[in-house]
Amino acid sequence: MTKAELVTAVAQKTGFKKADADKAVAAVFEAIREELSRGGAVAVTGFGKFAGRERGPRTARNIRTGEAIVVPPHRAPVFTPGKTLKEAVAE
């Protein structure tokens, strides 16, 4: 499902106009992005949890040259699905 398809689905389920549904979807994504950038987490009961995780430095290889490069430590977003979502997908 693309963002446009998600907006259409939200508009149909809520009765909003597509423009309003687009604003709502964009606002949700922006709120999640802002919270993660501050180092926080967003937990949606029954759906899952969005959080940031510290990734340590590691050695990788340049595919073209085979040269070893060091990837510096950084934060990466992670999603942990909730029990209800896991059960729905498993069915």
What does this structure look like?
The protein is an alpha+beta fold and 91 residues long. The chain has one domain (3-84): HU Protein, Chain A, CATH 4.10.520.10. The chain is 44% helix and 30% strand. It contains three helices and five strands. It has helices at 3-14, 18-37, 83-90; strands at 42-44, 48-55, 58-61, 68-71, 74-81. Strands 1-2-5 form a three-stranded antiparallel beta sheet. The protein has a two-stranded antiparallel sheet with strand order 3-4. The longest helix is centred in the N-terminal third of the chain and has 20 residues, at 18-37. It starts with a helix and ends with a helix.
Jot down its keywords.
HU Protein, Chain A; 91 residues; alpha+beta; two-stranded antiparallel sheet
